[in-house]
Amino acid sequence: MTDHSPPPEYAQAAVSLRGLSKFYSGKPAANNVWLDVPAGSYYGLVGPNGAGKTTTLSMATGLLRPDSGTAHVLGHDVWADPVGAKRRLGILPDGVRLFERLTGAQLITYAGLLRGMPPDVVDARCTDLLRALGLKEAAGKLVADYSAGMTKKVALASALVHAPRVLVLDEPFEAVDPVSAKNIRQILDGFVGSGGTVILSSHVMDLVERTCDHVAIVIDGTIQAAGTVDDVRAGGTLEDRFVAMAGGRSDNGEGLQWLRTSSD
Question: If you average pLDDT over residues 247-255, what whole number do you get?
Fold first, then answer.
């Protein structure tokens, strides 16, 4: 019988990535990524569009097979023990496609039943999640008729219904209105406060700086810096540290004098 017990070196980490790489047409989307996400942390993965954040998170959660390297979730190998790893994961992929002809309540219920949960437990948790996420009045509406913010919230509810220990959220606040964003942040704060781990990707530095306690900067498929937010920003702002690493700052509009207003 295969032993799927957690290796001791991964015991203290919620997610451990070792040498994860993925290439497309010979070009690296993620290149030898090593990262440890402490259990109980609120971890931000930041980088420009196309930096490799989604590829890295997809490999870390079993949605995309790496060309090389390993990923462990609370000590369980994502590829050698996918059931053990995914039982502990709640995932909100970027651009997630939902079953839009289901109602919000049906979608959450389906997610719970798919996990093998007892129907009565699913019903109770569905009711709790709809209320907590401000979707109670929309429970009977088709997901196809939901706004962007409502869609994010019902997808989050589907990721939470089985009470995971690690949440991986790819751009969870993109296209979300401020009220919905605050509602989601409160839920996530409570989740981390109770011992859960949240990993979120974003290219909005201010959001990550205000929300997360740990951060990793991803540029060109590699981890350029990782640690607590204070350590990574090194006395400045996270945005300044990121821009210094990423380079490519513009010339502040030099040559666009014609675009500026005049007194004429």
Answer: 64
